[in-house]
Amino acid sequence: MEEKFIHRVASNNIGATRAHNVLSSIRGSRYLVHGTITDFKNCRRDLNVFIGENDAQMLKDKMEGRRDHLHNFSFEYKLENSELSAFFWADETAKCNYEAFGDIISFDATYRTNRYCMVFVPFTGVDNHRKCVTIGAGMIAKENIESFTFLLESFLKAFKKQPNIIVTDQDPAMKVAVSKVFTESKHRLCTWHITNKLPTKVCGDVENNAEFKSKFHKLVWSIYTGPEQFEKRWRELMEEYNLLGNKWLSDMYEIRHRWIPSYFKDVEFCGLMRTTSRSESENSFFNSFTHYGDTLIQFMFSFDAAMDKQRYIQETLDHQTKNTTPKYKTPLNIEKHAAKLYTRTIFRLIQVEIEESVWRCSHNVVNTEGVIETTIVKEKRKSQPVEDDLVPLQMYNTEPIHEFKVTRNTEDGNIECSCQMFLRLGILCKHIFHVLNNCDIEEIPEKYICKRWMKDLIPADIRQKKVLYSETDNEAEEMANKAISSVDYCLRALMNNKAELKEFVEKIENMRAEIEDKGLNQEKLPKEARYESMLGVRVREQNEIQNPTDMYHVS
After folding, report:
1. Contact indicator for 109, 171 with CB cutoff of 8 Å
2. What is the spatial distance between Cα 338 and Cα 32, in angstroms, rounded to a whole number?
3. Which listed residue, 363, 419, 539, 552, has the most CB atoms within 10 A of its CB?
């Protein structure tokens, strides 16, 4: 039987039938696969039966083993009537990610991915490639204040400091927990979730009025409108369409300071994550690895596989940044300086700003009062905002804004623009680049080099670390993986050399015969011992904690 293969591919949400088909393709024939499709299905069934009532206890033992033996691994859990009701975990790589990218975090509790209907709650940030990065995760049996409070307190215990901004949906239990635990963070509601409810909350002729919807979205999503201007325009819009009596709109107006971008303009990095779409993207990502019928211990293998893919992608992007040279679009030295500092993704955004500072910007007013130099920069044409991946483009305020005020202190080098892009995103805007170029400044001033966007923030060896502690021999597991890789390499290398391939196969067959003669065939071990080896945790004689009750299916 191919028990280990079946178990491993299950971590990538590949079922028994597909697993059998894949292995048949790899080996070139179904006759070379040990077991039928039915055998593969029975293997999955038998493993689930083996886990059975031991699931929560096995998960606890496995995670506590990681916490006790792996550097900087955190694991916390909560019981309710001896049943596992919530748990939180974060490894060393997640903590490095939080240190670099923990300024703004989103978490979303809408994803049920196991047989107990526990809710998976990933904490999501934005890395230096503008990709989602998982910063810790948890599971809860109930979406109540106590469970969310436990998660946030566990998060704070693991990471020691609070994020600048936390983005959630409108869940009332979340609101209470965030205000209780994250006392120093700015709590922001998901604007997208709120605006998405508009069609169901506004009835009558207005519901299908395209002009009203356009005006509403432009007002709500504007990154330039200030609070006073927003409030004035909101009243005018409500009066124009006779919506002053709409309760939902009135309620949303009362909490406007929690979801309208105008009220976050002065908060650093407020533009990085304007909705929980990052969390929803993560949920979709994890969904490709997990199955709703998974046990908790199986889910953890799938989570590890998902993290391996996420971190591999990040490492690939780091490699591309280091080993490729971008094409420059201007003769300015400041563009070359930016290429040396930032990841390739961020450089491309800055490159657009630098290019547009040359071709789309001009200045017509420069006033100097003491050391303060004020420049009015005019754009020839408004360009698409850099936040285009966060919300649909049509939701932006597309009003023609042509002039921006840039103030520069000639003594200490401080420079600010009325568009506030650097505050919102940590990236200098085209208006500032235009002024810097006019002043013959050829490098980005050090104080405006945002560290979170720079190269090489997370060491490669940290990303490549595997969370592998178990009661079984991980060193043997790693050697086995290397052996499989080496054999695969030899087969590919010798595929077109029949004589050499024959000699190699004979050597392998001889080694196999020696192993059989010594009685070292692990497949002859009892099934329970093989399953314990695969799961990396042993079954206790008596469980201290019980599996969660399916809170969503209990009458």
Report:
1. yes
2. 55
3. 419
- Strands 372-379 and 104-107, bridge-based pairing: unpaired
Q: What CA–CA distance (Å, rounded) separates 99 from 88?
A: 18
Q: Cα–Cα distance between 118 and 295 in angstroms, integer?
A: 11
CA atoms within 13 A on the CB side of 39: 11
Per-residue pLDDT of the chain (555 residues; tens, 9 = 90+): 588 888 888 888 888 899 899 888 888 888 888 889 999 999 989 999 999 999 999 999 999 999 998 889 999 999 999 999 999 999 999 999 999 999 999 888 766 778 898 999 999 999 999 998 999 999 999 999 999 999 999 999 999 999 999 998 888 999 999 999 999 999 988 888 888 888 888 877 676 788 898 899 889 888 778 899 999 999 999 999 999 989 999 999 999 999 998 888 778 888 777 654 555 566 677 777 777 788 999 999 999 999 999 999 999 999 999 999 999 999 999 999 999 999 999 999 999 999 999 999 998 888 999 999 999 999 886 544 444 443 333 344 444 557 899 999 999 999 999 988 999 899 999 999 999 999 999 999 999 999 999 998 988 788 777 766 655 556 676 787 788 888 888 888 888 888 988 988 888 888 888 887 777 666 667 888 888 888 888 899 899 999 998 644 443
Provide long-range contacts, Cβ within 8 A and 24+ apart, for 47-55: 47/3, 47/7, 47/531, 47/534, 48/295, 50/527, 50/528, 50/531, 50/539, 51/295, 51/297, 51/298, 51/535, 53/543, 53/546, 53/547, 54/539, 54/540, 54/543, 55/295, 55/296, 55/297, 55/547
Indicate the SS3 state at residue 461.
helix
Beta strands in 380-426 (DSSP E): 403-409, 415-417
Q: Dig out the tokens for 464 from the structure.
A: 């490549």
How far is residue 334's CA from residue 464's CA, in Å, rounded to a whole number? 34
Distance of alpha carbon 487 from alpha carbon 356, whole angstroms: 54
- What is the distance of C-alpha 248 from the center of its chain? 32
In contact, 64 and 53? CB cutoff 8 Å: no
Condensed to tens digits (0 to 9), the pLDDT of residues 397-432 reads: 444 557 899 999 999 999 999 988 999 899 999 999
Helices (H), 202-295: 210-221, 227-240, 247-254, 277-287
Which positions ≥6 away from 123 have C-beta within 8 Å?
Answer: 105, 106, 107, 134, 135, 136, 137, 138, 155
Displacement of CA 403 from its chain's centroid (Å): 36
User: 319: how many CB neighbours lie within 10 A of its CB?
Assistant: 11
The β-bridge partners of 369 are 372
Residue 433 tokens, joined: 């680049």
Strands, sheet with 415-417, edge to edge from the N-terminal-most edge strand: 361-369, 372-379, 403-409, 415-417
Helices (H), 413-473: 421-425, 430-438, 460-463
CA–CA separation, 168 and 188 (whole Å): 7
DSSP conformation class of 477: H
